[in-house]
Amino acid sequence: MTYPLNSSVKPYLITRRLHPENQETPIQFIKNDKIDHQLFYRRNHFSYPVLSYSNYWLPINGFVTTPRLFSMQDILRFPSKTIKVVLECSGNKRNLFEPKVFGEQWGKGAISQGYWKGVPLRTLLELSGIRKGAIEVVVEGYDFGKRTDLDGIYTYLRSLPIEKALHPDTIIAYEYNDQPIPFKHGHPFRLIVPQWYAMASVKWIKQISVIDSNFTGPFQSIDYVYYPNKDNNKNAFPVTTINVNSTIQSPLDLEVLNTGNHLIKGIAWTGRGVISKVKISTDNGESWANAKVDHQDKIGYGWVSWTYEWSVLEKGEYTIMAKATDSYNRTQPASPFWNRKGYGYNAIDIITVKVE
Q1: I need a labelling partner for 176 at 20 to 30 A (CA). Which of 85, 91, 280, 333 fits?
Q2: Same domain for 271 and 194
Q3: CATH value at residue 333
């Protein structure tokens, strides 16, 4: 559905599942680089946790010299930083895979971004004294529940390699867009891991543990793993860094247009470096032209907007394609890397329009 520009109707989240709640951002209606929390996509494995904030403490324990227990007030007093970060579900665009794969059938809207404020995880870890030989940092959320593939109750836990945990921009966030993080997005504290798919950005942090081994919980060793083969686990490897990607926001797929001038626009993002160029084809890939890419910061943790002016005088059906390239020379492929659980889709974005 499209809305007239003068309409008072506002976009709303697209529901993929109600229990647990999984909803995606109506990405075609996003006009800027800061998504209001009400339109920020929601990805949950379990029901929302029940928390009490009157006596909130964050433990840092495990392979450390001095286990610590930080109060909310402690964390708010530490030096903070604010960073613009895109969070993309690793299953974003899953419904585009061929052959089809099982899992939440996300369209193109399991992605959002905004400004996160918090304290570097490194600050808390260094105050706890990381012992020599530490390998990973495990972050546990308060959310838990049953899995369909395993017996028992499981809590959402993920680990980071010690180097990623100590990166100065891996933060324990407590604000989003200058307001406390909303409950449905991880209040009071959420881990933010720039450049990695969002499964790493654990919500509702319960505790943080340093370990001297490799973590093997189900959300690390079963889920969020690329399985290239349909029938076996050979050559599997973990999901980590975001692939270079782009999405056409306007026109909409299967939209009917008049002849004349049209502005094709969209977003592009990457987990390594920055976006260096975006190319557009309006003839099903027979020819390509450079889109105009908006200014982006040197860090590249967020998406960038791009536009292309298209003049079309002949009626007919047109296939419009967009492909982004980043500063590491990673370019969107013509076909995605198929994997059994449907992670990391980043093939050239394609829509079809009719001009009449």
Answers
A1: 91
A2: no
A3: 2.60.40.650
For 191-228, the DSSP string reads EE-TTB-GGGS-SSEEEEEEESS----HHHHTSSEE--
Q: Of 238, 272, 287, which residue is a domain's last? A: 238
Tell me: do 252 and 174 sit in the same domain. no
What per-residue string of b and e applies to 113-132 under the rule 16 or more CB within 10 Å gives b?
A: bbbbbbbbbbbbbeebebee
Tell me what percent of the residues of the chain surpass a pLDDT of 70. Answer: 97
Residue 244 to residue 231: CA distance in whole angstroms: 28
> What does the pLDDT average to over 4-8?
48
Q: Where are the beta strands (DSSP E) in 37-129?
A: 57-62, 68-71, 81-88, 111-120
For residues 229 and 319, state if they share a domain.
no
Kind plus residue range of the DSSP H or E element containing 262: strand 260-269
Q: What is the pLDDT of residues 218-275, one digit of tens each?
A: 999 999 999 999 999 999 999 999 999 999 999 999 999 999 999 999 999 999 999 9
Query: Do 169 and 301 contact (CB within 8 A), yes or no?
Result: yes
Do residues 124 and 231 share a domain? yes
pLDDT at res. 8: 55
Domain span at residue 287?
A: 245-355
pTM for the full predicted model: 0.95
Q: What is the domain count for the chain?
A: 2
Same domain for 311 and 192: no
**Closest C-alpha to 115, from 80, 65, 78:** 80
User: Exposed, middle or buried by CB within 10 Å (0-12, 13-18, 19+), for 324?
Assistant: buried
Phi, psi of 74 (to 5 degrees): -60, -50
The total number of residues written for the chain in this structure: 356
Q: 307: helix, coil or strand?
A: strand
Say if residue 141 is in the same domain as residue 227.
yes
Question: How many CA atoms does the CB half-sphere of 272 hold within 13 Å?
Answer: 11
